[in-house]
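Ticket #4471: structure export looks truncated?
Reporter: QA, pipeline team
Priority: medium

Steps to reproduce: submit the single chain below to the structure queue and open the exported record.
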Amino acid sequence: MLSLNSLEKNNNLKKNNMIAFLHTSSIHIERFENLVRKFDQEVEVKHFVNEDLLDYAMSKGTTNTNGFNLEVQSIQSE
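Actual output as written to the record:
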């Protein structure tokens, strides 16, 4: 059974949560935003776009791991 205290702690944790999406095209932003909002109206959502990651994968046939890692580091530093 959850106590009032544990519910308050869960709510405080929820207020500090954030979801970040790294998209390869801005066309995906609205779809993912709507998906998150279907389940949670309050969580902070950030969308980042790097089309070069998809271009690289399409031309090289592999993931640009270095580019992806740099993008993640940039997102984490915000």
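Status: closed, not a bug. The export was complete when the record was re-opened. Leaving a note from the reviewer for reference: Residues 1-7 have pLDDT under 50 and may be disordered.
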